[in-house]
Amino acid sequence: IGFEFLPSNEQALFLVNNTASSTITCAQKCMTTKYCRTFNYDIQTKYCRLYQGDVDTTGLIISSSSSSQSLYGSVQLNIEDFLNYGYECSICDNNRYMKCINNSCQCEMNTYYDGSICRSQKLDGAPCQNNIECRNDLNLKCLMNIECGYNYLLNYTTSTTASSSSSSTSSSNVLMIILHD
C-alpha cells in the first residue's frame, strides 16, 4: 500500500497517462513535461500519470487501494525560480514556470503569482481572495464567500402598469440573482 495524489478535478488537471520503468523515470517525465507539477506512479502496472495541479491547492494525498502499490511525487517549487517575475523576457527564456507576456516574465497558464512563486490556480470550492487565484479558463471566479466558483447571473424582469381615468403610470423592476454551483 502506498499513497497517491487525488486531484480535486481529474478532467481539469490530468495531463497524460503513460508507462515508466521506475519511479525515477516517471519523475523525469514529470520534470520534462512543461505543465507537470504532480505525478502518480503505480509500481505494479508501471502507469505514470502526470497532473498540472499541485498538492497544496488542487488535490489531496490519500492511501492507495490495497490492490495497488502507488507512489506520488511533486515538483519542489523554489522562490529562486521566480525571482525574475516581471523582468524582461530574455531573463526567463529557459524558465519552465514563466513565459513572456507583454514583454515581461509572467506565470504560465493555470498559475498565478502570489508574491513569491507561481502557484496552481484553484478549482471549484477552493478558498480564494481574488479572481486571479481561480481557474479562469474554466470560468471560475472568487465569489463573495471567498471561494472559487461559477458565477451565474439571471435577469428577471417584472412590469406593472396602473391607470386611472386621469393618468397612467408604468414601472419595471429588474431582479438580479447570483447562483453558486
UniProtKB/TrEMBL annotation:
Transmembrane segments: none annotated. Residues 1-75 form the Apple domain. It comes from the Eukaryota. SUPFAM superfamilies: Hairpin loop containing domain-like. Pfam families: PAN_1 (PF00024). This is Apple domain-containing protein.
